[in-house]
Amino acid sequence: MKRNKLQNGWTLRRFAFKPHRTYKEMEEAFAAGGSGRDKNYTLHQFPAQVHDVLCSYGEIQNPNIKGQNEELWIHEYDWAYRCEFYAEKDLDTSLDIRGMDTFADVYLNGVLVEAARDAFLYYDIPVTPWIQEKNVLLVYFHSAKRVTDCMELPQKYQRHVPNISAARVFRSGFHDYCGPIPSLIRCGIYGDVTVKQREYFAFENIKIDIRLEYNHTKGIVEVEATFQGDYENSFWEVRLLDAAGNQKAYKSSEIKREQEHMCLEIENPQLWYPANYGESSVYKLLIAGDGDIRERNIGFRTIEVTEDFDVTVNGKPVKLWGANLTHPDTMTNCYSSEKMNQLFDWAQMCNCNVLRVWGEGERYPQEFYEECDKRGLLVWQDFYLCCSMYPEEEDYMDLCRNEAEQLVKCLRHHPCILLWCGGNELFLARDYQMPDSYCFGEKIVKEVFKEVCERLDPDRRYHVSSPFGGIWANDPMIGDTHGYTHLWFVPGREFPVFLSENNRVSVPPMRTLKKMMTPKELWPKDYTGKVTRSSPLKWPKTWSGHNTNDGHLKLGPVERYFDPETPEELVYSINQSYAEYLRRQVSRFRRGYEGRDGNRQRKTRGHMIWKWNDNSNIISYGILDYFGEPNHAYYELKRCYQPFYLSCEFSDHGYIWVTNDTLQEYQGTVEIRLFDLEENRFIKEISKGFSIKPDESFPVCTLDAWGQFLKRHIICARAFTKEGGLLGTSLDCTEMERNMRYPEDTGLEIRQEGQDVVVKCKRYARCVELEGNHQGDVFGWIFEDNYFDLLPGEEKRIAVKGRHEAGRILAKAIYDSCPAVCDYCRKWDE
């Protein structure tokens, strides 16, 4: 099999929208050239979508930097790509196009060979009759905005199904929920384009089944291959390599029929576990014949997911703690390894073991799932439906079926795939918007997708939609739920079965806000920071212009914090209140039941934050902003997701809990001390031993031995192993911050030791923030911990990562006006 990836020689130009345009018109326009925005743009990099190309030429600025899209003219035009290439004339040939967004006519040498209308499909187009030695490939994209605006739906869908849901487009571009504002409709080729030419035979389809037998001591790989072309009297081979490249199994066989089967066995395979539960051992499977070589990542593991999200991997109970991932950039769907790997790095540092590919997101290439395999990140994979009702016409359901078949076939061999899900908020959208109506699209998720999964991947769980399972779609007591408790009173909210989304709105750090807003927008002259009956907004009106989802209604408990007098104080109150919300909520979900409940039955099986990343510079839900900068909520979630977790419960009594989401048993001691902020010393102490098994969670003790104590005191708990190693720490109090008086003169100090920095203080330091600066560059610094409280006399060691080798690092407690500074150099010599 010869493969020629077409990376060079591409040209792009725009055309006025026209429902029907002849090939001759297009070629004449390319031949004529042009000027201004009507010129031919030579592509310096491919694949590239229209906005990518225009940005590279300086025609537009990246609208995501400020979160404002002023270039709405782009989606009013048609756009065409043209490429000349050479090939052999007398070979079976196909064009493999890995992503067209969306309505595209594909011409080869003037012949229409494909009319694409689905952004989620890969297209493998047979072109043998029309291939020449010298060829012209032209892909003409019709304006998706104009096409969807002109669609006429049957009467029964009126008011139920919006036009953008009746087309297989990336819906996120047609509204501003993800930003930028008002919207950004992408267009163009977002995946590789490859000319494939077969000399003798090639693999048409490969199916891989992996299973474990004899109590996980034998791994079996079954490969079923279907061939096309002249395969008779040829051979094919399969070999299995471990992570170090060592061959662990091999077979070769003559091809006698169109479909062949081969089975490999391996004794005592290294098992694949999700992060925090063991090694994520990945093997490489090579399948080859006649120069057609296919590679697949596989892992040996068994996984079971019940209706109530009891998850076991290799027979071991696993709780799911993770995040909903959205596409990294609204301007392009061209995959960026650099951006995605940064998001993966943050996920690993946050102790995540699961990521959800959201139903209104984009389709990712194999590289994405290979990274998840290697990193031990389970993937909850949605099919691409989202927060809407959908038509149930046969041609539309056929497109959805094709998408699902293609996706399942491409991904089913990956050990990271946890489950398939019909999409996002299909029934929830109906419940909220039209509660008494039929849910159009129900046939897709309950019949079409279900049948595909049962036929192609029967051993993996299929979940109808997210959320789904109870008396109503978002019932937390059965199935999964989304955390809309900021707007609705939800029965059963305290211990939901599974939180597949949970959120509050946060704001990016101040360094990012300054890219988003002007100084006048950040803090208008007449803004007081006070929330009153006549002025109920919890931020300046100017901030609402950078938010797309009524975010002022979806904040954390900001009322528990001081009224801000500066933009910095406002950022603190919003983000720290979100962190507090996570601490209270996720700690409870991790524990799984109330301290006074003696049966030790954990009710909550997992939690995924909505959302992991903002893909435009707007005020939204992301705990990582558009530039990959984390806020308070990120670091609080990191603490809450620690595999061994120490936490406080304040209900009718005070409880100190230990929670063990590892495969290891722990024994040790918890030391609990009460700290008086005014006296700057510990005044009470309790010590209790504990022994905890995997998947256990229970209160070690109550705080009743202290009797009454002032709410302004700090509860400090630490868990140690019996050998004295520190397992976990918890600092907490029972009073709202508005009523606290944290020290303003903390005596904070910072110094470098090795590759780390060490921070200490003389008085309790509330919410210490670390910031780096290298010659004015304040972005790209990664601190292992940040926005943390610090007790006097303690030394906290923090690893410094990121792209900067040197710079100045500043540490500041929120109520202390005197920061501490050190000059940092990664090549530090003591």
Search tags:
830 residues, alpha+beta, Jelly Rolls, Immunoglobulin-like, TIM Barrel, six-stranded antiparallel β-sheet, 16% helix, hydrolase activity, glycoprotein, Beta-mannosidase-like_N2, Beta-gal/glucu_dom_sf, hydrolase
Structure explained in plain terms:
It comes from Blautia hominis. Residues 747-802 form the Beta-mannosidase Ig-fold domain. By secondary structure, this protein is of the alpha+beta class. It is built from 13 helices and 46 strands. The chain has an eight-stranded parallel β-sheet with strand order 28-27-26-25-24-31-30-29, covered by helices on one side. Helix 4 packs parallel to helix 5 (366-375), helix 6 (394-411) packs parallel to helix 8 (442-456) and helix 12 runs parallel beside helix 13 (632-640). The longest helix is centred in the C-terminal third of the chain and has 25 residues, at 567-591.
Question: Short summary of the structure?
Answer:
The chain has 830 residues and is an alpha+beta fold.
Structural class, by secondary structure, is alpha+beta
Low-confidence stretches are none
Helix coverage percent of residues?
10-25%
Biggest sheet strand line-up? 28-27-26-25-24-31-30-29
Overall CATH architecture of the largest domain:
Alpha-Beta Barrel
Q: What's the β-strand tally? A: 46
